[in-house]
Amino acid sequence: MEKVALITDTTADLPDEIVKKYNIKVLSFRIIYKDREYKDKIEISSQEVYDGFEKEIPTSSMPALQDMEDVYEELKKEGYTEVLGITLSTGLSGIHNGLTLVSQNHPEIKSYICDSKSISLGEGALVEECAKLIEQGKNLEEIVEAIPSIQKRIHLFFVVDTLEYLIKGGRIGKVAGTIGTLLNLKPIISVDIDGKYFTYAKVRGRKQALSKLVEIAKEITDKRKCTAYAMHGNGEEDTLKIKKVIEKFDNVSAINWGGCISPVSGVHSGPGLVGLVLIEEE
Known about the structure:
The chain is of the alpha/beta class. The protein is built from eleven helices and 13 strands. The protein has a four-stranded parallel β-sheet with strand order 2-1-6-7, with helices on both faces. Helix 3 (65-77) packs across helix 4 (95-104) and helix 9 (206-223) runs parallel beside helix 10. The chain is globular. The mean pLDDT is 94.
């Protein structure tokens, strides 16, 4: 009997109940300070990262290859014969390559490592949709075949308070940084087909940026019925305001509260992030 396992990473921001329900294996990124390092979400919380910014802005690295090896060993013991790995975008991290390498050390398990081309609940939504397909009894080939159409239905947008952290972390992609800091531009950022950040819309000032986020959600949900996720990075108050507006839209069947993004994502986006994911329903 084929038994398909799911592996992802902490940037997918999946709630614990989803991880437990589908037995998803989650790889932790590393948060690195000058004199110490932590496993993302396990040994350090997002709030601790934000609170420490005044003293030091840490760097990050992908999960250790040994952690990936350990997960494969665990899956073997649990009787899994196939693995679907869904990782943070290759445009933002090397985790996809790392997991691909490790999967090749385990030819006894058939593996497909997928680049989510997204982050946070954009990545998490893809993982959850694939978990549902596994639950329905789909095999690895059928799930892999469905992935491109699922990815097309997922829309991710976020606003940050300052572009300083994205610039510092080298994760700025196609978002023009210096102009933003000079003119108080608050771009609505999304990810392109290569999984890199780009400016979806340019807005001056935070208030207008949040209004624009609502406007974008309205445009998308006017065309298709959607499920939504709202998440934040030390920007809970603004995100809850957005959530209250969007949950009243006729074509939004549910808006789930994703809570705070992972510590590693917080390192790169800085405080004040307001994020929104819309998944078009089939």
